[in-house]
Fold:
Amino acid sequence: MDFPTVGSTIEVQSYKHNGSLHRVWEETVILKGTTQEVIGGNDRILVQESDGRHWRTREPAICYFTANSWFNVIGMIRNDGIYYYCNLGTPFTYDSEALKYIDYDLDIKVFPDMTYKLLDEDEFALHKKQMNYPAEVEIILRKAVDELISWISSQKGPFEPGFIEYWYERFLQHR
Structure:
């Protein structure tokens, strides 16, 4: 698997379990790209939904993808602090087209004070039935939720104080 070079711009694509395209983020600047993690930055980029709708992100964000965990993290830089949106899904893959992962509906929103809320359990239950998620996937995802909560509580990885700010400064250098 080739990896994007620092400073290059890529698309991020999320898919659903049935293989359908879910969402595309069009311009993420690569700040770090290795076999184990990809860190990117973007600001007010165009996002395309599977139903054809388009919208722009509202603020600068640092995106964190890991090859070993079933989640990715987006740190959104707002006036009142850093908010995190965590997507539960497969570890990333990368090809010459885009960075890709399968989105499994569950999300965790983390607030600047590091409190958090698990979201979209109803959507997960619905899609689990509609798309026949294997039992193994549900087990992996429940463990990933626990791992993610542990990272949040211990301020590990992208939740470490200064992490988002550090990578945002690097992002500003590549704009």
About this structure: The chain has a mean pLDDT of 96. The chain is about 25% helix and 45% strand.
